[in-house]
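Title: Prediction job returns without error message
Component: structure pipeline
Severity: low
Priority: P3
Assignee: unassigned

Description:
Job completed but the reporter wants confirmation the result is attached to the right record. Sequence as submitted:
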Amino acid sequence: MLIRRRQRGTVVARINIVRPSAGDAFYIKAILLHRPVRSWLDLRTTPDGQIHATFRDAAIHEGLIEHDDEANAVLVEAINLHISPADLRFLFALLIKEGAPQPLHLWNNHKDAFCRDFLPLAFNTLTDAPQETRLLAERATLTAIDSVLLSFGLSNAMVGLPAVPAHSPLAQDDRDFFAPQQHRLRTQAAQARGLFTEQQRGVRTAVLQAILDPGPQTSKLHLIQGRAGRGKTFVVKTIVDELRGTAISLQSVLPPGWHLPPSHAA
């Protein structure tokens, strides 16, 4: 690359936007905006004469970017582009694998976006939700992140994120069986809720409140009765789909010593 100074006249050029996720192109642009270069080696050589291994190292050494802010900038960009929560969680885990510093700080900054699809639709954000609801959404999200990290040979505990609580083998079987179906279950539940009557919406609200945000006097026993064909099974199935869609394990009540496989409890 050869750059010669313009001898006369002026020129106005358009500066294209290069996002942090563009990799080397992002660092090259940052350097070119501050000094001219004659070669690829010049790009990696800082004004003090040091030659760096990467364009990123050179840009950091010159103070053109903040070392600890790169992963945060990538996540902010992805959120602004309305990337799905599942893809955000994968990106977060990938950034951690690639050496992003302070994973806990990144989690605290962006957990609203990471948790969005696990939060009950009654609440717009984590801060709007009751404490128990918020904790359940965070737990489901951390479990999903832990699963991605495990594929990289890591875990939440290893990288400084809140550890995922242990589950009984039966509860884990339920979670494993329905994990690939969570998006379908949440979508299915949302469509069914649109068909609810006012009374059915009241039943759903009472049951979910008892599970997600029980008060001191809240009963956890609910009897749904009515004539045949009035939608009792429809309501119960919708509630079950909604809970399993947010990674909450359910277990059917059977006589002692009996166990029902998750596939039969669906």
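Comment from assignee: result matches the submitted record. The mean pLDDT is 81.
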